[in-house]
Amino acid sequence: ERLLDIRKHNCNPMTMKVTYYKKPVFINQGHMQWLWDVDGRRYLDLFAGVATVSVGHCNPKVTEAAEKQLRRLWHTTPIYVYPQIQEYAEKLVSLLPDPLKVVYFTNSGSEANDLAVLMARLHTGNFDAITLRGSYHGGSPQATGLMSNTHYKYPVPSSLGCHNTMCPDVFRGLWGGSHCRDSPVQTIRECSCSPGHCYANDMYIKELKEVFDTTVPSRIAAFFTEPIQGVGGAVQYPKNYLKETYQLVREKGGICIADEVQTGFGRTGSHFWGFEGHNVIPDMVTMAKGIANGIPMGAVVTTAEIARSFAKGVHFNTFGGNPLACAIASSVLDTIKEDKMQENSAELGTYLLTELAKLRDKYEIIGDVRGKGLQIGVEMVKDKASRTPLPQEAMNEIFEDTKDMGVLIGKGGLYGQTFRIKPPMCITKADADFFLSVFNQAVLNYTE
Ligand code: PMP
Asked: Closest Cα to residue 419, out of 365, 377, 366?
């Protein structure tokens, strides 16, 4: 009876959590890139609890560090100083460029983004924020206020002072071109750009200037972007977009915030942070998810100057950066390095993207393959010419079929039209090949 209820509402009636599948999966156990359900069926997990379990489920090294800390000290209050928070803060900021050297720990990505808004307002004395249409920044009232897409939130007013600019989506956006984005694979759209000069970029910058001129004249506090959109479906921007927008925002007195909740910690392969792929240094970086491999934790890292404006008052949270979370996060950083997970993300990401692009060329309903490292999107369309999003029934059929063949992937995009692949960064080439054959079969089953 309960199962029927779940199917009807697409929601677990007891916990009110959204369930993805028509036939829900009851997960019982995990090890590295593998999950087992209550019946002992094994799944290759290519979604990693939404790009979170980056070093693998119950990674033995991290589990050992957690066990050690569990026997020493779980929690105290940040009123005291304890070695775990000092050591981890130092380790974390050593991975960020100057002047990003002060960290504040939170419990989630939403909380980190809320805090970033507050810090930006305190520092600039301004109120408004600009975000990209299609972005995702969290589920708290402030974070939902940063987002315009009602697929990700209830369509009720949630926050004042946020403006959206057009999402510079090279595939689905109004303008785009084949050489505009930083990915091993390019779009199949015709390109109207000349080498070295991106027409799409010019148009999106023009649009942002219009937002400034017409809606936020000189009152901007913050400009929020994900270096590669996550929930939005691995959307990538023209190569120079962030560089030029950062300059514009700073001229207007605002600060630039990189939401690295999904793209941080080596996920994009070639760089540890997504922003590094855009040749910019933000004024503030927010992070969560992969930071502690599934233990609730988040952080805001910013400059000493911005931190000084924030330190004039009091801000408190109970759990942020507690000894257990810090010990686990510290072990996650060591594991990424020792086990060359970022390198693996780069190598297998390029392999998967290259092979998926072959499927894109084979099937009319695969419109675009994009991303970097293990932050991959496969956008599904009715046909390549119209780029109309593939209807949800079709998406669900392929999604369900993939799961029934033993692989878990994600779904997202502005219209729910993009499959998302963001596995633990320990997957192997054999896992990638298994997924490719399963996905090929699922698309074939649908098209036949
Ligand atoms: N920012 C981005 C880019 C995210 O993907 C998410 C979560 N999907 C968040 C913020 C919010 O993080 P959390 O769910 O930990 O609050």
From this structure: 377
